[in-house]
């Protein structure tokens, strides 16, 4: 027993002694040094960190829609240039950058570069602020990174601003390869754009989540060595800062991104037991490579005097980077090996086109459309010129074209006018704006089809007008046998009043919730089945409007007779005028007396009731909901649909930056703030 106690004391003593050992002291010093390095790096980059909020314009169901998104970014110049991911800023109608200080600025896109998944934004100063120098971060050398280096991921995960996580570099030159490892694979975004041709990612294990996209990856010197792009399950991938530098340099120098392309797919040569050159996997039709005579199976040894060695897939992006930097339009020599024989070809690099063209909508016809690019035409067997239909809106003219027009068809002509792009399509349609039928020529694979589109957008629904009938302002339930038994009167039949509507003759006559109606003008009410629910309503409708009817009822166990004047049935929702605001995509109608009664509004309550708000519309984005009662827009009172049309038409003409909509929602008043992008809205 004593020996065991002595051993425990000795063990504790050794542990305590270990705390003060030179090793422990050294470890503490290293931890302190790491902490200081992290703090220094944080302090250098944090002031340049931005939280990006986007209002994105996307196309679905044949129409433009809008949604809120977000991500991160970093300021990289004193005049407010911001680097972020393309997939954060793509299709943005509005962009807002919030600094770590809490200041918020609108931003505009300078350049999108889908191929590297990078976008360059520019912070916009308010009109009353002429000049400002922003805190900015320096771009470091991503090629200097080594496996095991400490890195910090900064950004706004889940839109929680100004967050930092620590990790190490797992692989500074990561590419995604096919299962066999003989070809690189690209990363595809939601809208179909691809990234990966030029990129060898910095793989790291600093935690990143949705919202971190576009944020900086920082070394302990406080330099940005990457722009975070992908992450999950403990893996993070950042675009190397050296690629970002090239993009930024072109933006500053030329205001746009231009890259050269020769038109062949490069593959590694390891499977050929070679260490030099790059294998030609395929050659694009009509490309510089095809024109020069390059063939699949050739080995490219050098381009413009520079060796092109790609033994492994990880080296393929370097080949594409070399090609991208070639002078566009200037002939270069390409040394190849074919069947063991060397030869030199001359190629003239062409401009590398984006795969996807611009997308837009023709709102009046109900279609979304996209320009066809040469790469898209080759890949999808489309005509070289034309406009691709990407969506058709149900109920709109193109939806009922004869013969049927389909998503994926390419519009190549309108009437006698050839169509090469979206702008030409709009011009051609404008020439037919007064025609009842518009002839569309579309190409579907190899088939060329002539279709007629009726040039008539959907109209607002017409009110349902019915002659008024006698009406009793109550809501009732059938007194079923089970309910009658529950109240101890198993043989009782009739209707129990569940609601007495205000401002009605029924209310003025003194009818109450809980009254049981057993007779009308002396005739028994024999209702006891669920299917008898409308019997009282039908009998009331047969009475003359303006005359009194005698209701026999049970109240607190006593039989009572009450006379009620028959009033005309109030206008129903179906009979109210409906107006659709097409630009902001929501509908309203006039309110009816029954609306005032059932919502317990004042008897003289005015306004228009929102009946429909299109998903992804500016109205939905601003917070408007079906069931809202609009009372005013930009402080102009809205009493009815006529006022609504007048005020919204004025807004379309003046285009205020914001529409402040004062509404009643449930029992409270509140506001919706609609901030449309008028330049998109004013399109046809």
Could you describe the 3D structure shown?
The chain has 684 residues and is an alpha+beta fold. Helix content is 20%, strand content 36%. It folds into 6 domains: 36 residues; 79 residues, Trypsin-like serine proteases (Thrombin, subunit H), CATH 2.40.10.10; 92 residues, Pdz3 Domain (Roll), CATH 2.30.42; 94 residues, PDZ domain (Pdz3 Domain); 99 residues, Pdz3 Domain (Roll); 109 residues, Pdz3 Domain (Roll), CATH 2.30.42. The protein contains 15 helices and 44 strands. Strands 23, 24, 25, 26, 27, 28 and 29 form a 7-stranded antiparallel beta sheet that branches. Strands 38, 39, 40, 41, 42, 43 and 44 form a 7-stranded antiparallel beta sheet that branches. It has a 6-stranded antiparallel β-barrel with strand order 1-2-3-6-5-4. Strand 41 and strand 42 form a beta hairpin. The longest helix is centred in the N-terminal third of the chain and has 24 residues. The N and C termini lie far apart (94 Å).
The CATH H-level homologous superfamily of the largest domain: PDZ domain
Q: How much helix, percentage-wise, in residues?
A: 10-25%
Could you tell me how far the N terminus lies from the C terminus, measured between alpha carbons in angstroms?
94 Å
- Give start-end ranges of low-pLDDT stretches: 1-19
Q: What value does the average pLDDT take? A: 89
Whole-number radius of gyration? 36 Å
